[in-house]
Amino acid sequence: MSTPFELLALEQGDTPTSFRLPAAAALTTPFDFLYGGSGIAASVEAAERVTGRPLIWITTQFLTNAATGQTVDIDVDVAIAGRATSQVLVTARVEGALMLSSTCAHTSRPDGDVEQFHTMPSVPSPDECSEMVEPFELGADRPAAFYDAMERRVAAGEIVFDDTRTPQRGLIAMWCRLRHEPIGSAATLAYVADVVPLGVCVALGRPLGGTSIDNTLRMVRTDVATEWVLLEIVPDSFQRSIGHGTVRVWAESGELLAVAQQTCIIRTSHMPSPVPSPM
Questions:
Q1: CA end-to-end span of the chain, whole Å?
Q2: Mean pLDDT of residues grouped by 10 in the chain (279 residues)?
Q3: Strand ranges inside the chain, DSSP E
Q4: Could you tell me which of 41, 51, 49, 48 has the C-alpha nearest to residue 72?
């Protein structure tokens, strides 16, 4: 099984299929709610612990959220446990209210031939790329946030959120690694791949602000050692304030590790109101 994702600090609950996730500041956004990638990663880790099988697919629907300091109660229901494949439902609640629901598939099928039908984009190495200026940087006294656990470097496109931003129509990609533990397990990849809202806002040339409706992660490989992963972000569409997109996750050596797909609401409530034009 995968090495535990230590950042989550996922606790065993009162039964073998229940867990507790403290919504620590390191797992939340600067606006004091749980980062979606943290919730998905916790679902992955809980389901892998219960089934004893590695994840191959998870789709998560977000219904509400948890505030910094709250505890998320997670329950795993193994609907089917076949000879090699398990189908699982994970639910997470905050003070009894359903926060998210994940459907997962896990398999212990033996390894076979490996093929991939896409090629990693040609981008500069992490050492040649500049560190991304994280959105909502509020100075040295800002509260901790989920992205403090990551180092992200811009590999392609202009990922900026100040007044110089313009709509992007080419390749958007960033290198990412975890600062204090290895990357490559399904839980760690779920944590870093929650970037479609960012990609859609970059494509639109808008300030960052998005809320996930759902997020799907399809695992390809966890057997490739890599310090960095490349997140190839593909915004697909935007209509009625809803964005869709895809993220391919690549090892430094070019292996496809996972594919994420996401639907999100692009928010504007945190943005300054436009100044009326003079009459």
A1: 66
A2: 88 97 93 93 98 97 94 97 96 97 95 89 96 71 83 92 78 96 96 95 85 94 95 96 97 97 81 40
A3: 11-12, 18-22, 55-62, 71-81, 85-94, 97-107, 150-156, 172-178, 210-219, 229-239, 242-251, 256-266
A4: 41
